Amino acid sequence: MAYHRGSASVSNSALDDLVRIGERAAEGIDPTCTVFISGSLVEGIGNESSDLDVFIIDRPSSEPQAKPNAGYDMGDFSMNLQYVDKTRLDIETWSRTKVQQVTEAIRSCDLEDVAAAVAVPTSFIDMAHRIRIGVPIQRPEDFQLIQAAVPSDRLARLVANRFLVDYFGLSEDAVGAIAEGDYGTAMLTSQWTLGAAVDAFCASKGHTNPKPKWRFAKLRALGETVIAERYLEVGLDRSAAPVDVLATSKRRLRTAAEIVQSVQDNFLANRVAS
Questions:
Q1: Are residues 113 and 191 in the same domain?
Q2: Considering the entire predicted model, what is its pTM?
């Protein structure tokens, strides 16, 4: 099973430019801190308006440390915004202990229990993905150890399970709305159901980016043009007539169910391969 860092369209020169920006951002940061860059630009799915994510993991020590660029307290981490040239930087500072909690949560989650994925904080799942696709800037040897502690196969299954939980809940809502003839709710919930199914599919194929906004970029990176075409075909309502909206909503649910079956097939294939 291949685990995707992102799009194959990221050129070495573009990545070198991002590394140079990351190095400039790291100037003045305690040299005992580990620094890496990540995010949509590193994955190759961002655009000119995308920011570069810079992550600081404080020193591997029990000594308390004043967080560099403390910025805004986000609970699990602190965030600061800066600019290097015309590139906006989102700089997150994580404690070593919190990063260890992230990797332990990924490793200990019961993947056979789909609902168990809900207990893993979304910030942990996102951070695990950022670590997995990250590029080191400072203390690369330490970053490689942190990166190796994030098992790609388990992370992909966890992300898929998280979207499957959404799928099952949303599909029930959509079925209820269709039964009641509530075409507006049926339209929305069936669209969300289909989206969750596609996101679960991408994760089951090894793409661990948990952000729904990158749905089409993930499908492109995976080469899944057929799924992308099916998603577009049934994702849009071509008529506002209530009877047509309800009919399209039913088609979405059928398509979503077929995609989820492919997710289950991928799980089984991965289990057999391992």
A1: no
A2: 0.88
